[in-house]
Design goal:
Elements: H1 13-18, H2 23-40, E1 44-47, E2 51-60, E3 66-76, E4 81-85, H3 93-96, E5 103-104, E6 108-111, H4 119-136, E7 139-140
Helix pairs in contact: 2-4
Length: 142
């Protein structure tokens, strides 16, 4: 059976954030960490080499494929921040309208810097995404 490429690791989140070279990106990542901790109530866990995840869920598809994945989180990528909210943003247009300057992917949201985003709307989006995911697959602490 196929395994997920992105899995939880023992890498220290605080050290990962502290190692971000660009001072503003590092400060934004520290602030995002606090937003996610508050919104989720979960301590962060590194997933793969660069994703900071909060909570997890176990999925099982009709095909029989199953695994564990982060419930929500973010990655301070070089070009921009990627925010992961599973399974996507289809029902969150009212929140996204007030979020600020961003782009959407399938289950990712991208923005360049935290100053471009309304933190209250981001908190609402994280909470709404977790509530939606929890209706499909129970969310738990990793």
């Amino acid at each position: 059976m196929m395994q997920n490429k992105t899995t939880a690791t023992a890498q220290n989140v605080t050290e990962f954030i502290a190692a971000i070279k660009h001072p503003q990106k590092r400060a934004d990542a520290q602030a995002l960490d606090q937003i996610f901790r508050t919104a989720t109530g979960f301590d962060p866990v590194m997933w793969g080499p660069s994703i900071i995840g909060y909570g997890a869920y176990h999925y099982r598809y009709a095909s029989g494929r199953e695994g564990d994945f982060l419930a929500t989180g973010f990655s301070p990528r070089k070009a921009n921040f990627s925010v992961y909210i599973m399974p996507g943003y289809a029902d969150f247009s009212d929140i996204l309208m007030d979020l600020g300057k961003h782009k959407l992917g399938k289950s990712c949201l991208y923005f360049n810097k935290l100053a471009d985003i309304n933190p209250v709307s981001l908190d609402r989006l994280i909470r709404a995404g977790l509530a939606n995911l929890n209706q499909i697959w129970p969310v738990r602490e990793k």
